Amino acid sequence: MGMSVTISTAMGEDAEKILKLQYLCYQSEAELYGDYGIEPLTQTLDALRAELAQGTVLVARLGEEVVGSVRGAVDEDGTARIAKLIVHPRMQRHGLGGRLLRAIEERLADDLQAKRYRLFTGHRSEFNLRLYRKLGYAQVGTAEPVSGRLSLVHMEKPAARSPQTYAASA
């Protein structure tokens, strides 16, 4: 009997698992840009624990194993900043990244009244760019140079309005 992947709120005890998965997942990005000093590879466990305490962090589990994660927080202006969408390499290309992204969007809209979602990825990260476009994100502004090899592409989409919002505005 196969197990299904579940998505839930990350707990404090997930921090080490998330950090190890993050390190594994960002190896391909580091190789793509020739830069192994990118922040996801240098983030400390304490910094990740602070993110768990301050923002919204979801994990995807296959049994007890953490196979994916995503983070988000909402600014005062209602912009949800989504970051570090990761999926274990063996679980990629099965829709889990899209499920995680939709789950964090829903959580940030329902719990924190997000008005729009914003995220970024590297300019050469074609798989990520394709996924985000497929899920309704569009590039905003020009790519932001970080180094001679890496520019960040910022993407955004409006938050879906809930049925209650439609009823109230009708």
Write structural notes for this entry.
This protein has helices spanning 15-25, 27-33, 39-42, 45-54, 96-112, 126-134, 163-169; strands at residues 5-9, 56-62, 65-74, 79-87, 116-122, 138-139, 144-145, 151-158. Strands 1, 2, 3, 4, 5, 6, 7 and 8 form an 8-stranded mixed beta sheet that branches. Helices cover 38% and strands 29% of the residues. The protein is globular and about 40 Å long. It is an alpha+beta fold and 170 residues long.
Characteristic terms for this protein:
38% helix, 7 helices, 8 strands, 170 residues, 29% strand, alpha+beta, Aminopeptidase, disordered C terminus
Write the topology of this structure.
Blueprint: E1 5-9, H1 15-25, H2 27-33, H3 39-42, H4 45-54, E2 56-62, E3 65-74, E4 79-87, H5 96-112, E5 116-122, H6 126-134, E6 138-139, E7 144-145, E8 151-158, H7 163-169
Give a brief outline of the structure.
The protein is of the alpha+beta class and 170 residues long. The chain is built from seven helices and eight strands; from the N terminus they run βααααβββαβαβββα. A hairpin with a 4-residue loop joins strand 3 and strand 4.
